[in-house]
Task: structure prediction
Amino acid sequence: MKQFIHVQDVLTPKIKHTGTAINQLVEEALAYKANPLKDKQLGSNLRLGMLFLNPSLRTRLSTQVAAANLGMESIVFNVDKEGWALEFEEGAIMSGNTVEHIKDAAPILGSYFDVLAIRTFPSLKNREDDYSELFINQFIKYAGVPVISLESATLHPLQSLSDIITIQEDLLHKGPTDTKKPKLVLTWAPHVKPLPQCVANSFAQWVNAWSEAGFVITHPEDYALDTQFTIGATITHNQTEALKDADYVYVKNWSTYHDYGKVYENDPAWMLTNERLALTNNAKVMHCLPVRRNVELSDEILDGPNSLVTTEAGNRVWAAQAVLANIIKTLKQG
Amino acid sequence: MKQFIHVQDVLTPKIKHTGTAINQLVEEALAYKANPLKDKQLGSNLRLGMLFLNPSLRTRLSTQVAAANLGMESIVFNVDKEGWALEFEEGAIMSGNTVEHIKDAAPILGSYFDVLAIRTFPSLKNREDDYSELFINQFIKYAGVPVISLESATLHPLQSLSDIITIQEDLLHKGPTDTKKPKLVLTWAPHVKPLPQCVANSFAQWVNAWSEAGFVITHPEDYALDTQFTIGATITHNQTEALKDADYVYVKNWSTYHDYGKVYENDPAWMLTNERLALTNNAKVMHCLPVRRNVELSDEILDGPNSLVTTEAGNRVWAAQAVLANIIKTLKQG
Amino acid sequence: MKQFIHVQDVLTPKIKHTGTAINQLVEEALAYKANPLKDKQLGSNLRLGMLFLNPSLRTRLSTQVAAANLGMESIVFNVDKEGWALEFEEGAIMSGNTVEHIKDAAPILGSYFDVLAIRTFPSLKNREDDYSELFINQFIKYAGVPVISLESATLHPLQSLSDIITIQEDLLHKGPTDTKKPKLVLTWAPHVKPLPQCVANSFAQWVNAWSEAGFVITHPEDYALDTQFTIGATITHNQTEALKDADYVYVKNWSTYHDYGKVYENDPAWMLTNERLALTNNAKVMHCLPVRRNVELSDEILDGPNSLVTTEAGNRVWAAQAVLANIIKTLKQG
Result:
């Protein structure tokens, strides 16, 4: 693995099918969960530089823990708080507020670290800019070392890998019940603020690439996601219909994609409750966290027996560890 | 030791008397001071997560150094600056400013780390809320791993343990002079801002539990502390009387407890000077730091031969190391 | 080496000539570049405390990497963001905004760490205050352990050492062409904000002490630097003349020294372009970064074959490693 930005990065010279490659990565992650220190020497004398242009709790800490499990040192740098504003536009005349160009910062960071990881967020103001992924792409272009996305403007691949690990783990616990593919539902949920589409985009991209589940997306009319990610899924505006017989319900808010970054809808009817959960096949409920309790998702669900959210967040460590291990192995092969 | 929040946490299955348990812990701390790396492998492959909802210098750094001395990795997370506002109330409808509930964050942190440490402060606005210790109690309730207080709304146990280590160490230096218990005075001092009662509460709680010193508390009339901590001490509003024959004078400001969080008094006469120190038995002077020089405590005292403040702050490392070692040993016993 | 604040700190009991001592340090740095882990055990069980009163990217990260290469643990503390305002004035009555006196903080940090490093900035408001270097001098006075400057009010020695390493390395690549000393030009460049004189002062101080290059400084009339640093250099207000036959051009903005901290001039004619570079002996171009592209220095230079800026920033690691190694060796000799 040379980078970890979108689902295609899971492909290897030997494995050309995303579903197979994802299953391989999930297996490696679960092996780390069973034995966190089995590759304690793999990252020895290697350094991971972690740059944050935006806040992060789970992603930062789980990746640091994963690195430590591999004997790799990680150093965190909060660019927004400990540093200064970076410029990403080519040819900019930097007489404004940006202090350093990514063209100057990235190669130096690449000389200090063996692997870099970066978190950026979308502006939610200009769709074209956000979906061009300028920030992370410029960073990759100039860094000269492997780059891991800790969430970018439109995707959150470490989250999606953790999500699939969590589903796979749950399916393994259940054992082989029948040959039917599990039904997986991604449902929009209300929120008080406009949020990125990253988690929803990325989850759709990964589930479609994984192709081991039936996949339905449900959201209010104005909340259609970019079809490059959703293609392959069934889409409905009827949550009731979507939830029927679901085995896994992934709950997440996102702001509008077409009329970009808006909050059109806040109908609490979209919030998952036990009453709505009764429509499903006793579905397990997932969320990437942080979650606004009793706005996005009810206490009764989060504190109930069907919630997988803590397991899912815990699995972030094993996802990051599997990805880091793959990147280190590729590095060592030169 | 399963947690380190209040003085009762020093008790062990074998030692049921707080004074004995404190002396045992002090002895262990002084053994680390003599030989910091004697348990270099004890914390190997264990991780300490340190969460700060408020700023910290000595507490953060001394605890990180203590962890390193035990071969334990520590990771710092400034929740207030690197993360987002946490919700602590059960059943909250999170449509306001709080982004994540402690019920969701704590168990995940507990899955990433073997031991957690947290610093919170009181609001100084609502006494009942502060004294309910909601924040740290909710954290303990949901973390699922041992929790160390790096100062909570009402107590600061690592500070108090360091204070007693410092006194004990000084007594050992003096050698057995006579059989009289040393006289220990906690005196209120002026300050420009309303400060928490934590250090004073905690010092009183620990000295009373230690019971190896005569203990006098002196403060202006309106500054009575919560009796649950002070019970056992002699209390007087006459500083002159209190200082008489004192062997150790602990200087600290706190805001009012009854009419909560107020600054009623700022009389510089309460500031300790060499003139006032002359009333004592050549007493050693202590303060937890940071100290407002020439407001809380005069330069002549802080820079004079009777000040123990640097020793006291240095001992923070050995206090934290003894506590961490005890918690690790309990963890390993399963 | 007992501290690393100004160029004189390179002198050793055996080497009394700064040029020789600098060359020795450069050689050690280049040996680390060739073999970063050759002294992997040197800093084992030692701790570096890094304090930032101002933001830092390269200095912080390169020093942390250098410490790790020596097996030394580093802990970062952003005093301005994670702590509180420090007081530096002797005898201050601390009833204002400063929370802790350096007299109290420094010795404690010295008890927690084996070596301390600190970054402070000038106010650019009061020249006398800034040039007294009160902050770093007070820190050194009270720390009780070796102190490394990560940039102070008037100097930036780790940068200057990296600069000379970079020049020396480039000269070694070229091989012995003739016996002429290389011509080195420090040129002022435009900027939108008033910047410290540190990098320019320090570069002048080091190049003059190194004395292995002909040295010319060029700047607009009002931008004369303090002569204590520039003495020995040829100074001209004519950039064209200065650039003639130059082998290395060091580009940097600074604010006025005499009428202190002002921006008098912003003439883009002072910005180095390929056209102006043509005046030189195909000179290599240097800058300490961060650089305002197309304000201080043009894209065509920064992205062209003559730029050494990335190499120069990369060499920060080896400069810091050579300095840390020297300080550790002195520490171990007791």
